[in-house]
Amino acid sequence: MNNALFIVFAVLAVAICFSNSLPNDFILDDYQIVAINPAIRSVSPVHLLSVPYWGSTSNAGIYRPLTLFSFSLEYPLWNRWPGGYRLVNLLLHAITGILVFALARGLLQSNAAAWAAGALYLVHPVHTEPVIELTGRAELLAAMFFIAAWLLFRRGNYVLCGIAFLLSLLSKENAIVFPAVIVLDRWITEGSFRKVFAGFDAWKRFAPVAVAAAVYLGFRRWALGSMLIPESVQYFNGRWTLFERELTSGRVFLKYFQLLLAPVTVTGDYDYNSIPLAHARDWDAWLGLLLIAASIVFAIRIVKKQPVISFAILFFYIALLPVSNWIVPTSLLMTERHLYLPSLSICLIAATIWASIPAIQVRRIIAVGVMAVAGLLCIAHNYLWRDNLSFYGNIVRVLPNNLRGRQGYGVALLEAGRPVEARKQFEAGIRIMRTPWMLVGLAGVDMTLDGSCANARPLLDEALRIQPAEIFARWLLADCFQREGKLAKAEEAFRRAVADAEFPDPKLLRAWGSSLEKLGRSDEARDAYRRAALLDP
After folding, report:
1. C-alpha neighbours within 13 Å on the C-beta side of residue 76
2. Which residues lie below 8 Å from residue 498, measured CB to CB, with a gap of 6+?
3. How far does the chain reach from its first CA to its final CA, in angstroms?
4. pLDDT, the chain, mean
5. Nearest-angstrom CA–CA distance, 511 and 496
């Protein structure tokens, strides 16, 4: 009966907190991965096992075939309606919350505490990004299968545990820490590492997990050709030193702590230069590292007196290890979605403290207050993800030095017919870093305001010198050639833009088809139109 009640509660809580996001548009990577991705237009699981997440020619070092497979199963139902995919995200989040409840009941040995942990996990406002962003599906699937594998391991179903772990890895690579989590769980339960690995039965427990990890790493190597993220797509193009990387993590974790405890302001993106790289003189970075070290020492010291709190603290750092940049550099400094699984730690700690309060009336007041505030914050945060204009506008408001925020807001303003305001965003972005994307944005503004390419051409040429495969620079250059009547050069520029794009935009394909048609190459034009229609019927 208690399980059934929590299932009903989970569905209602998710509906109340997140259903206002269903009308939201495609945001951030949603457009490329879902709206125009040809890989999800057919159900082909074997093919998806063999290709990177960002397309067959991608070198981004990301491999998530199960996430793409889930989108391909849904595409016949939703096509290009983002609300359908988001509805499935909400369902997955509810299921994950139910699994958290089941896990917490075993860890905390208290129904009341398990309810508190599960409820807080379901409505925590920091989960807005992974639940609302369609590509947050990777976090949702990985966490769902991760916790399912954990439950199966604790119940002695080791083969099924290995299968669930493999599914978690195929959803997102950060699940690779699962072996460390179950070892930590057994260590705190058994009281020593020697007992964890003692005897044949111990090795029998871990063998399916090891096999699953080996199978995943083999598939990853086959699809990507390497295990790590290439330097060219690492954060700051891999130009930061090991010392800068480790020290900057102090600033990052201070932000993570704030998001877990007081997620009043969220942005969904922390691109360069939202959190500046730290140097030896930056006391706040050292403070962050000190808090990390102190909390780990504290967790180890209280392991016998408060095993759950000790476990929760250590779990937090283990779960974040793959994306922390501590061991290997990644493509991102931080994101809110990285907290989707690690936030289980704050839920366990809060539930333990809440359940220890002797006065039932006080517990009820705290529970109602926390749920009400968290629910209101979730509902408010969902509106920030309504469309690109609201999303990037919020980033610029909260993090004015966010490079992607300036670029995205400029593009959104330009598409909304507000080129003068767009120019201000691109110019602000160039003051942060002179990137090809900012130059292309300014060129687009000039072409809109002037009706000619006179001022835009130097900007496009500079963008292509910096990044010869810059798709949008080629696209605008092709438009310039068309305005000048140079149809052959326009077609060549369109062709190169299409060739360089991992997922060619339907509008780009149609523009290319039109240029081919003007040159009398009707068969090729029909093929371009056909490709566009496949992506956007």
Report:
1. 4
2. 504, 508, 509, 512, 528
3. 47
4. 93
5. 13
68 with 38: CB under 8 angstroms?
no
- Residue 27's nearest CA partner among 395, 522, 377, 512 is 395
Q: Does domain 434-535 have CATH number 1.25.40.10?
A: yes
Task: Give exposure, 329-349, as e/b (b: 16+ Cβ within 10 Å).
Answer: bbbbbbbbbbbbbbbbbbbbb
pLDDT tens digits, one per residue of 256-277: 999 999 999 999 899 888 999 9
What is the distance between the alpha carbons of residues 330 and 21, in angstroms, rounded to a whole number? Answer: 30
Domain spans of the chain? 2-384, 434-535
CB of 439 within 8 A of CB of 462?
Answer: yes
* 74: Cα separation from own chain's centroid: 20
Please tell me whether the overall predicted TM-score, pTM, comes out greater than 0.90 for this model: yes
Residue 140: partners with Cβ closer than 8 Å, 6 or more residues away: 89, 92, 93, 96, 130, 131, 340
User: Among 219, 282, 285, which Cα is nearest to 254's?
Assistant: 285
CA 77/CA 348 separation, integer angstroms = 37
Half-sphere exposure of 99 (CA within 13 A, CB side): 22
User: pLDDT by residue (tens digit) across 196-210?
Assistant: 776 667 778 899 999
Provide the H-helix boundaries in 109-198. 111-123, 128-132, 137-154, 158-171, 178-190, 193-196
260 in helix, strand or coil? helix
Burial 166-183 (b: 16+ CB within 10 A, else e): bbbbbbbbbbbbbeebbb
